[in-house]
Write a structure and sequence with these properties.
Blueprint (H helix, E strand, L loop, with lengths): L6 E5 L4 H12 L3 E6 L4 H12 L4 E5 L5 H15 L4 E3 L16 H20 L7 H11 L2 E3 L10
Parallel strand pairs: 1-2, 1-4, 2-3, 4-5
The structure holds NADP nicotinamide-adenine-dinucleotide phosphate.
The site of NADP nicotinamide-adenine-dinucleotide phosphate (NAP) has 23 residues, from helix 1 and strand 2.
Length: about 160
């Protein structure tokens, strides 16, 4: 098992690609923090599946476009597992496929909030520490690997 006892955070980890990543990581021995945005039966299902693989798992409701939510997710993870080894910024938002001039400002803000701001917030913020300079250094130590998007991801060595 290549990820034995690593702590992996997967945003959008209850559905589709995020779910597949979470289950594969669990099979490789990782413990999981699953971020979800909207509660559905998928949340308890993935918990059950990961526990069946004899891995530890917690779920965190998070809107990654909101700084306070992103910070809370990091804090919950560190409180339970003590560290983050792998962060999979999988969650994403998109607009309905429409001509560009039909996209509303609200939709644009949402996509930028989730796909850009959300990734930055999760990687760079750790409100469990007071000193922001230290925070960044510590976070880099805690996150040995930043996986920005599943299709750009390289497995941590
Ligand atoms: N599918 C493809 O063909 C494809 C191609 C290229 C790249 N990708 C990338 O691969 C990743 C996963 O794709 P996918 O098709 O599996 O996505 P998806 O099925 O649309 O799922 C998106 C996930 O993001 C979560 N999410 C949305 N807004 C959120 C927010 N504000 N805060 C936290 N979580 C939020 C959703 O959570 P809830 O379900 O709880 O709302 C959902 O689990 C994305 O980064 C996408 O850009 C996908």
């Amino acid at each position: 098992m290549r990820l034995n006892d690593k702590v992996a955070v997967v945003t959008g980890g209850t559905s589709d690609i995020g779910r597949a990543i979470a289950l594969r990581f669990a099979r490789e021995g990782a413990n999981l923090v699953i971020g979800y945005h909207n509660y559905s039966p998928k949340v308890s299902l993935i918990v059950k599946e990961i526990e069946n693989l004899e891995r530890k798992v917690i779920t965190v409701k998070v809107d990654i476009s909101q700084l306070s939510n992103a910070e809370q997710m990091i804090r919950d993870t560190v409180n339970v597992f003590g560290r983050i080894d792998i962060l999979v910024n999988n969650a994403a938002a998109s607009w309905a496929r429409a001509p560009i001039f039909d996209i509303t400002e609200q939709e644009l803000d949402k996509v930028i909030g989730v796909n850009l701001k959300g990734y930055f917030q999760l990687h760079c913020n750790d409100s469990s520490r007071d000193d922001k300079t230290k925070t960044r250094q510590n976070n880099q130590h805690k996150c040995q690997s930043l996986l920005i998007q599943p299709f750009q991801a390289k497995p941590p060595m």
